[in-house]
Amino acid sequence: MVVFDMAGTTVDEKNVVYKTVRSAINEKGFDFSLDEVLAEAAGKEKLQAIKSVLASKGITDEKLAGEMFTNFVAQLDEAYRIQEITEQPNATKLFRALRSMGIFVVLNTGYNKQTAESLVEKIGWQQGVDYDVLVTASEVAENRPRPDMILLAMGELGITDPAQVIKVGDSTIDVEEGQNAGCLINVGITTGAHTYEQLQTANPTFIINNLIELLPIVDKENAPISAV
User: PANTHER family from the entry (predicted)?
Assistant: First the structure.
């Protein structure tokens, strides 16, 4: 089973989610840069992402964070309505190659279910053709870096051994999520939120620049797989 993050990893949405996080925060009188938002928020459930950005300046205000999150949800819905959303290069090609090898493809994300499903629909991915399971932050008790989303997907697919799982994501918290789940291989990818150097700080097994680079890793490692 390979678990892929969405925005920045398999979905190319031009960082609109973090630009929207920044907008929702800065509308309340702050002046965070996009780099600051990415450093603190990447990969996290979005209310927690806002709290983390505020905490970086020593601010712990639940009410304020809640107001920002409400604004964020409304702004993101509108942004995604008009924004062109595409897959990251080679995403569909990789998904289908993995599934043809008998490897489950899982999408997981810090988005809520409604947003994630709208992105999948906009790209045109079909469950059972391009991916097997979609798991979102709104379905679990604890979010990244806790492994709940990966464990939920494992349960749905009947996988009991995390050594049968590979995690791929564009942020350090994606890598940490996989490590906390006990995944066999944890892969950082440079197409999204974090740079090569930032990803290195989480000690991933590999860092890649394009999704298709995962195929030789799967072959080389001879990773245990589960039949689709």
Answer: PHOSPHOGLYCOLATE PHOSPHATASE, PHOSPHONOACETALDEHYDE HYDROLASE
Whether 50 and 103 map to the same domain: the answer is no
What letter does residue 88 receive in the DSSP assignment?
P
Rounded distance between C-alpha atoms, residue 198 and residue 188, angstroms: 10
How many Cβ atoms sit within 10 Å of the Cβ of residue 57?
A: 10
- Does 228 fall in a domain? no
- Quick one: angle between helices 16-26 and 34-41, nearest 10? 110
Among 82, 102, 121, the domain boundary falls at 82
- pTM for this predicted structure: 0.85
Q: What are phi and psi of 193, to 5 degrees?
A: -70, -40
Q: Are both 65 and 108 inside the same structural domain? A: no
Closest CA relative to residue 21, chosen from 56, 45, 3: 45
C-alpha distance from residue 172 to each of 55, 78, 122, 162 (Å): 18, 28, 27, 19
pLDDT tens for the 228 residues of the chain, in order? 999 999 999 999 888 888 999 999 999 999 999 999 988 888 788 899 999 999 999 999 999 999 999 999 889 888 888 888 899 999 999 999 999 999 999 999 988 888 899 889 999 999 999 999 999 988 999 888 999 999 999 999 999 999 999 999 999 999 999 999 999 999 999 998 889 999 999 999 999 999 999 999 988 655 444 333
